[in-house]
Amino acid sequence: AMEKIYVSMILLLVAVSCALAKDAGKETKETTTKPKLPQTLSRGWGDQLIWTQTYEEALFRSKHSNKPLMIIHHLDDCPHSQALKKAFAEHKEVQKLAEKFILLNLVYETTDKNLSPDGQYVPRILFIDPSLTVRADITGRYSNRLYAYEPSDISLLYSNMQKALKLLKTEL
Question: What cellular component terms from Gene Ontology apply here (predicted)?
Fold first, then answer.
């Protein structure tokens, strides 16, 4: 009986290590062709941009790099989020300007109430300056959803991004 257990254990170990080796082989093939950042962080908002993983990391990087933080709240199954993401990712000037920001896109709500000054809706985009102040004064065009943008608002978003950078220089 003991021998059967040992044989079973060895077969199990062999099976597990084979499965792991197969997965490891896959990963190396993918990572050689993809950019150095995992695609998951951009979630399609701009694969060549550097995205932070968490709100805490984003705040830290904003403070220490003296760059404003741009937070995009969105949901994968929201058609408005998807449409804005497409417009954002395809807009060359927005993508270029986004390089001057610490970037974070969230598909979940944070516990920080400052990130939902007028409610939790998606998509919404907020700017936070390196002093960790939420720029509640940089808004979109909707009075009932101050931080919402639609694909047709992409030029407004672009000018708000410029505003966030300009205010940074004048106020800090």
Answer: endoplasmic reticulum; extracellular region
